[in-house]
């Protein structure tokens, strides 16, 4: 099975020792994206809705660098620092993924890098 890494020039630089994505055969594992604005390296201004939109913009940039799109996602993991943001996250989420929606898990966590309210990682499949 081939293994390679993906660096997306349109996504924020990694904030730690990880690749934007790794491929393993036909499966593409995207690292978690936080709401960092690529041009500034800072968190986007605004509420969790703005943060969710930025996260999806960043994930979209990584998917595009892999030659993929949100329709290719098979599993998504959503991390929130406050489960009260669940509905707002869903409202953005359902505009991004076509149906049938990928499998998904959402959990609340004690903290995220740079004080973000949301981080999302996903796994996609080359078809
Ligand atoms: C933002 C990340 N994906 C990380 O720190 O692992």
TrEMBL record:
Q: Which domain of life is it from?
A: Bacteria
- Identify its protein family: Belongs to the RutC family.
InterPro entries per the record? RidA, RutC-like_sf, YjgF/YER057c/UK114
Q: Which Pfam families does this one have? A: Ribonuc_L-PSP
Alphabetized UniProt keyword annotations: Hydrolase
Q: Which organism is it from?
A: Agromyces larvae
| PANTHER family in the record | 2-IMINOBUTANOATE/2-IMINOPROPANOATE DEAMINASE RIDA, PROTEIN HMF1-RELATED
* Protein's UniProt name: Rid family detoxifying hydrolase
Q: One MF term in GO for this entry?
A: hydrolase activity
